[in-house]
Write a structure and sequence with these properties.
With 371 residues, the protein is α+β, with helices and mostly antiparallel strands. It has 7 helices and 19 strands. It has a 9-stranded antiparallel β-sheet with strand order 11-19-9-10-16-14-15-13-12. The longest helix has 13 residues. The protein is elongated and about 80 Å long.
């Protein structure tokens, strides 16, 4: 299989070039500011092409897309939450699974550059030690892979849809690292560069934001709260954005202070690491203090000593906490599930640390008037 063993998959054998190596007839101006839209059976992602770094690889990719060669091929190898490999024309035939990883090679010479294998990097696949063995196959990094720097020609980066690539990387594999389920490329198209869309919940009005309810699915029962975009629009947009992206899923209530607060949203309490795209959504928030009192059921944002240090962690007040008024940002209020709040508050603690884990399984967003 044509991928370096250091990436967790066996290296390729053979794949010697049998024809003159490809040299693109396209000029850089014809290839600049282009994106590839890759539609797969697991979702769509977009690649920024990098002709300055690898003109022949980008030219070959554009030609291959025009010919439709990638359509119907499968991502045939992957390392979970690490890397995916695809582009082998042989993989369009399910009956030739044993040959996956050996097709489409020996077409173009490597093009070394100073580019690095950061998250989302798209680079070539070839036979280790043979700079004339690269071709149609490519790999995509879910996370940084510095061990691949200098060994693969980098010709693109995922600009949108890295979570889709992450899901593809989680496809089950056999002992040889080959996928046991088919995730196919439905189509690839090329378009002029477009800026990424604004983050979710950027353009909604205050009234539209206020229609959302957050349902916290916890091991103590569901907790539903309404949001206050009229008082803390930045915090509400941030909370909705993180919730929709699944940032809070799999966390825990890490702090229980009876008669005061229960607190969650602490990233290290999460059962699995955040994806690069999830991490990119986290930022410190400017305070949005109001005269809303911190009474039982109020949802407010946690922070450090710096008033502008809030990011993901939030708390639900379980008793009157006047000392928090005007110095912590209130952004919501529990409207259903206060009994679950009480059960979490009753959890045995060591200081303020629960002695048993209280899970925040998921934050589900619903809109008033919709199921």
């Amino acid at each position: 299989m044509a991928l370096l063993a250091l990436a967790g998959l066996p290296a390729a054998a053979g794949a010697q070039p049998t024809q003159e190596l490809f040299v693109t007839p396209l000029g850089l101006d014809e290839m600049r500011d282009k994106q590839a839209v890759v539609e797969t059976t697991a979702g769509t992602f977009v690649i920024d092409l990098l002709p300055e770094a690898a003109p022949n690889h980008v030219g070959l990719f554009l030609q291959t897309v025009e010919e439709g060669t990638y359509d119907g091929t499968a991502f045939h190898a992957m390392v979970a939450r690490g890397i995916v490999q695809g582009g082998d024309p042989i993989s369009a035939d399910p009956a030739r699974r044993d040959e996956y990883g050996r097709g489409g090679l020996g077409l173009v010479a490597s093009e070394p550059s100073d580019e690095r294998h950061t998250p989302g990097t798209v680079s070539s696949v070839g036979v280790p030690g043979n700079p004339a063995s690269e071709g149609l196959q490519f790999l995509i990094c879910v996370v940084a892979q510095p061990g691949l720097d200098g060994a693969h020609t980098i010709w693109g980066r995922v600009a949108e849809g890295l979570p889709v690539v992450t899901r593809i990387s989680e496809t089950p594999v056999d002992a040889q690292g080959k996928a046991t389920e088919r995730i196919e490329i439905v189509s690839v198209s090329v378009r002029d560069w477009q800026p990424p869309p604004p983050p979710p919940f950027t353009t909604e009005t205050v009234d539209e934001l206020a229609a959302y309810r957050a349902v916290l699915e916890t091991s103590a029962g569901p907790i539903t709260f309404e949001l206050f975009p009229d008082r803390a629009p930045g915090h509400v947009r941030n909370f909705l954005r993180l919730s929709q992206a699944g940032v809070y899923d799999g966390m825990a209530f890490h702090r229980v202070a009876p008669g005061f607060v229960i607190q969650t949203g602490f990233v290290p309490s999460r059962g699995t690491p955040l994806t690069e795209e999830q991490r990119s959504l986290i930022a410190n928030l400017e305070p949005e203090f109001s005269d809303t009192p911190h009474v039982k059921g109020i949802v407010s944002m946690a922070r450090g000593d710096d008033p502008a240090s809030a990011d993901t962690s939030f708390f639900i007040v379980t008793g009157r906490a006047a000392e928090l008024d005007g110095v912590y940002t209130v952004f919501g209020r529990v409207v259903d599930g206060i009994d679950a709040v009480d059960r979490i508050e009753a959890t045995p603690v060591d200081g303020e640390t629960p002695l048993q884990r209280v899970d925040l399984t998921r934050v589900r967003l619903v809109q008033v008037g919709q199921p």
